[in-house]
Design a protein that fits this description.
The protein is an all-alpha fold. Helices cover 76% and strands 0% of the residues.
Length: 192
């Protein structure tokens, strides 16, 4: 369970940290072999044993987000992604994971609509906006770190999100796409 009340206190206990690592690795193995229920159980166990002060706390929650997406538990996945970000706000991978959770939830809504189920477009729009906000933060952090590859990824994802989910802002989609292309050309040594 992700219940905070049951979390152990940081005590430097090496055995506990090894258990966390074991369950986290097991969760990854289960996920990679499409044993989603076992992956969820293992990652929940790792989370229940982990402490905020553990060096792999963010990594465990980042991994958990991906596992919960595979089981379509998007709220728990988003909670895990946010905890990973809180543990290390400078880790750009964590923002990418959060965006992945939001995109997955959005695509699941689209899939449900194609299957004839009702879609709440207000909820869809909120998710799409959260996705763009996450990529905006990722872009800002990549710019602060002067990390061109991450900037390109953020530009590309923002272009896609504005194009598909905010047609009224398609000019922003074009602007971000142009920035992505210009950055790649610069990085790869092409004339602009």
């Amino acid at each position: 369970s992700l219940d905070e009340a049951n979390k152990p206190q940081p005590d430097g206990d090496e055995a506990r940290r090894e258990e966390v690592k074991k369950w986290s690795v097991d969760a990854l193995k289960y996920r990679n072999s499409n044993q989603n229920d076992l992956a969820k159980e293992a990652i929940q166990r790792a989370i229940s044993l982990s402490c905020d002060s553990d060096s792999n706390f963010g990594e465990i929650h980042d991994r958990a987000a991906g596992i919960f997406v595979k089981s379509m538990d998007y709220d728990t996945a988003l909670s895990c992604a946010n905890r990973a970000i809180m543990s290390d706000p400078d880790n750009l991978n964590y923002y990418e994971t959060k965006a992945y959770v939001l995109i997955s939830k959005k695509f699941e809504m689209m899939k449900a609509e194609r299957a004839g189920r009702q879609t709440d477009y207000d909820v869809y729009d909120v998710i799409a906006k959260q996705e763009r906000e996450t990529f905006q933060i990722l872009l800002k952090k990549a710019q602060e770190a002067n990390d061109q590859k991450w900037m390109e990824k953020a530009y590309d994802k923002l272009a896609s999100s504005y194009y598909w989910d905010a047609p009224q802002d398609r000019n922003l989609a074009v602007e971000y796409a142009n920035k992505a292309v210009a950055s790649m050309k610069e990085r790869l040594g092409y004339c602009i």
